[in-house]
Every structure is written in structure tokens, then in C-alpha cells.
Amino acid sequence: MRERPLVADLVKDTFIPKMFRVRQKFSHDHIEPERIPQVIAELLSEEKFASRVRPGMRIAITAGSRGIANVALTTKCIADFVKSRGAFPFVVPAMGSHGGATAEGQREILAGYGIVEDYIGCPVVSSMEVKKIGVNDEGGDVYIDKNAAEADGIILGCRVKPHTAFRGPYESGMMKMMAIGLGKQFGAEKCHEAGFKNMAKNVPLYGRCILKNAPVLFGVPVIENAFDETCKITAVAAEDIERVEPELLKEAFSYMPKIRVDSCDVLIVDYIGKNFSGDGMDPNITGTFCTPYATGGIDAQRVAVLDLSPETHGNGIGLGYASATTKRVFDKLDLASMYPNAITCTVLGGVRIPIVMESDRETIQVCIKSCNEIDKSNPRVVRIPNSLHLEHIMFSESYWAEAEANPDIEIESEPEYMPFDEDGNLW
Fold it and tell me: What is the pTM of this model?
């Protein structure tokens, strides 16, 4: 700790520019939550889906670890449909190694999203036990959740969204929910063994085997808009998943929010967490990709992370791609919840610890000071609340002319210095 005053002294004179608030404009098409039960009921009442759920069947409904809009409601609606057909639903956590790779940890994640028995009206059956259900086309053993494998049917509840570490026709969606989510820690590890370089191949490779050998009935995938709202719900029969999912992924890409400038010297992220992205902060937004197999997002020379969301429960995965963070974040880290996910997916960079500074101000200053070949009297700084909510963000005054000229940006305030308290933290 003796070096701390020296470290603070090294950055104390670094200039932090004035910032102004903007509203970024995105499509706001969405489904109101009160309409979701009707939408799902109408979709699943089609003979193509309704006929697959028969009286007396035990039906597993998948629910993942992502903070999906209205996820408890959509899960409940699927369970209600199953019960209306005289069958018996139960929810299985389909989240690979998340939740510390424990049954209780995965149950707690679902509970945090409101997926509890009292609300959804059926049991939540959480276990890390898996069962081999077949061999894929390359001779690899394929495992899924034992309770789901032994059910009479499986319904995939999930979201279709661009992945954060690879590109392919199947990224985050039904195929991945089967291959990695239902695989639990053991199956997810099998799928990840060849690394993200091969993930675009392995997700459908394992997914096809599960479709062939497990009792998958259909999926009920959702797509979200730039405001973290449900904008599309559809139903896809098991035999159509391989054909339909790539088109849903293209649609999901079109709805994604973005930072409407191409680059910055420093990106400030107020909060990261698993509720915002599986990577803590979505690299499709922040540019902080954990592999070279996906690109996009803003080009930032340095990234400052100021805090963890309460919902992430200390899981600071993704922090490793920040340049600096606060002592507040460091003190909240739950390494036991971070490491299993990193080890399972074979990418360790996201759980590394960046430079740790005492305050928000010092964290921002060290990022600005360490930038190369920039105008430090007028640095280009972007500040976002998190990687999911990007309607209202902040730009440094160096962006004023660019913001004025962009029809998708509305300036909401004059430039002002960020308000730090006596401890150097933002308020």
C-alpha cells in the first residue's frame, strides 16, 4: 500500500474533459408485456406445436443465465400452455457452467430473474448431472442435462442474439442453448474444448446431435430491441430450427444498439455484469472481444470499468478486458463464480485483474494518461451506463460537432465537468 500515494500522484494532474449528455435514437418496436401471454398462447395453439404436447407428458422448459427481458413471464406462459394440454412442465437451468457450476448457484440465478416455482407454477429442477444422448457426426460424445434427457419432451426457451466471441450462422440462440446450455458444465466443456476458433462449427455439430437424439419438441425464441425490450416472439418446430435460426440471428443483429461514434480514446463503463452480457460488457458494443474470431463495437484505446451491478453477485467476468478499474470493483469480486465459466470456455482473459485505482477519478485519469498519440488537452471520451442501455450516454466536448451533425443523436445538455465527491467518486 506504500506505493498508493505515488500512483495517485502520477495521475492527479491528468485532465478530464467536460462531458455532455446525448440521446441516441434506435427503433422502439416492441411487444408490451401485457400482450406476451396472448402472443405465446396464439403461437403455441397452432396444431404444429399444440399436437406435440399430450396429456401426461413431462416437459422440460429451458431457462438460461442471461438477463432476458420478460424471461420469467415468457417461461410462465410456456409452462401455462403445457399445463393447458394436460402435461406436466418443469424448468431446467440451461446455462452450462454458470452459477459457479453448481445446481444451487444455477437455481439462484433463475430466482434472481423471477423464475421461481410460486410464480411460474411448476417445479424448477436444477442439477449438474448429465446423460450421454448420442455421438455427433465427428464421433464426439454429446451430453445434456439428465432431467431434460429423460423427460418426454423439451421446449427451448431462449433469446437469439449475436455472440460475443465468435461469428457464424448459429451464435446465441436455440442451437447454443442445446449444445452448451443444456450440456451443463460437463457438456459445455466438451463443446468448448477446441476453442472459439471452432465454435461456429461445434455449436451446430452438437446441436444437430441433440435434435436427433433428445426429445426436443420446439423452441420459443425471443428477439430484443435496442432498449432491452421484447420485440419478437416466435415458435420454431424442432425440425425447422437448423433452417430458421440463421434468419432470426440476422434480424437480431439489425436491432442491436450501438455507440454512434466509431472510436474514442477512453470508454468509461459505469457498470458491468452478467445481467448485461455473458461477457460482463457486450464486446459487440464495447469492442472488448475475448477472441480474434469476432469483431465490432467502438474502437477504444482504453476502457475504464467503475462498478459491478448488484445482479451479477460479484461475477466480474469481462473485467480482464478493461484497462483499469476501481478498488470498489476489486473488493466485490467473487472469484469462485468467475473462474468456472472461464475455465469451461477455455478463455481466461476475461477474469484477469486490470490496474486497480482507489477512485473513479483516478481510474479515468490513468486511462487517459496512458493513451498514446492523443490530444490530452482535449481527449475523446465516451461514457455509458452499461453495454445494454445505450439510449442516454455521454460524450466529451470533442464530439460536439460530430453529434450535432448526426441525425440519430440528440444533444441533451451543455458540456460540464463530471461531478466527483471528496473521495473522487462520481455521484
Answer: 0.82
